[in-house]
Structure formats: C-alpha cells, structure tokens
Amino acid sequence: MKQASDEWKRLEAIRTRLALVTSLDWELAFDDEGMLLDALEKAEGGTSRIMLARFGKHTTYDEAQLIAAALPDIRFLLGLVDRALAFAAEARRSRLQHPAAPPVPAQHKRKNYATEAVMKCAEPAFKRFLMERYGLESPATNDRVAQRLRGILRVTSRRELNDNNQAAERWKALRSEFDAWRRVG
After folding, report:
1. Which pTM was predicted?
2. Is 23 helix (H, G, I), strand (E, B) or coil?
3. Closest CA to 127 of 50, 66, 55
4. Which of 28, 42, 47, 114 could form a disulfide with 68 if both were Cys (CB 3.0 to 4.6 A apart)?
C-alpha cells in the first residue's frame, strides 16, 4: 500500500507542477546556434515566444522533440489517467449493482482508434512521417499534426475513427504505411 500512496503523491506533485506552468505550449525552434525550446505565451493581440532553453550540440532532434512535446504529452497522459480512473470507478459501481453481469466477449469489443490516433500524433517519428509523406509543415505542433491527420483521413474529428468504418479502415491503412516507413528508416 505504501507504493500506491507514493505513486499517488507523485501524481499529485506532477499535477501541481503542471498547474504552475503558464505556457500555452512548447515548441522547438532553430537559430544560427542550434535548437531552442520556446514557450508560447498569451500576449496582447495573440501569442509571444519566450526562449526557455538552448539544447547542446550533441542533443538529437528526437531528444529535443521529446522535451518540446512534454507539456502537451503530460496534459494528455493526466487526462488519460483521469479517464481510466473514472472508468474503473464506474466499472466497480456497475459490478456492485450487477454482480452477475457477464464480461463482454473480446470479439464484441471495438478498438478505440481515436485514442490510438491521439497517441500516434504525439510521436516524433509519426510527425516526421507526416512531414515527409504528407506535407505536414514545420514546426510539427500537436495541433498541426491533428489537423493534417484529419485532412488525410477525411474526417472532421478523430472520434469518427470509432464510429465510421470507412474512416477506421483509412486509419488502419495509414498506420500500416507508417509502420512500413519506420521499418525502412
């Protein structure tokens, strides 16, 4: 039980640190000296960029992208944790109310392609794939990636991947193309 308590404390510490960050987003930027980490901040008439950090010359693009994506990734993962906890609590309540309810057979469970697409959009390799194969413009922010993916799949929301069989098939084909692209390198 101590481990669960320590994990809960760590989760709450992460939430607290995230709440103190005022940046809208973080992005990679480049100048004559190399890669930078910029914070996008609210400003009068729009947003402004503030340099947070400069990466050393031995920092790889993937390492820098991992750090640049940390803010939206943490927000996403905390949301995922919250949804999982809510789902578990609801399942527990449901089992208490209907203890004899049989489990849903695996063949009747539908894959959540929308969530899969959200996670894939956060991957630096998937962003590079979309840049190389589908003309995604740089910088590959999460918003740009999501917008480009919706255009490629001809959907207005990634949620359609769960409700529209044709959209789901287009997603599976794109995912397979990405896997093949990644294997070739």
Report:
1. 0.47
2. coil
3. 66
4. 28
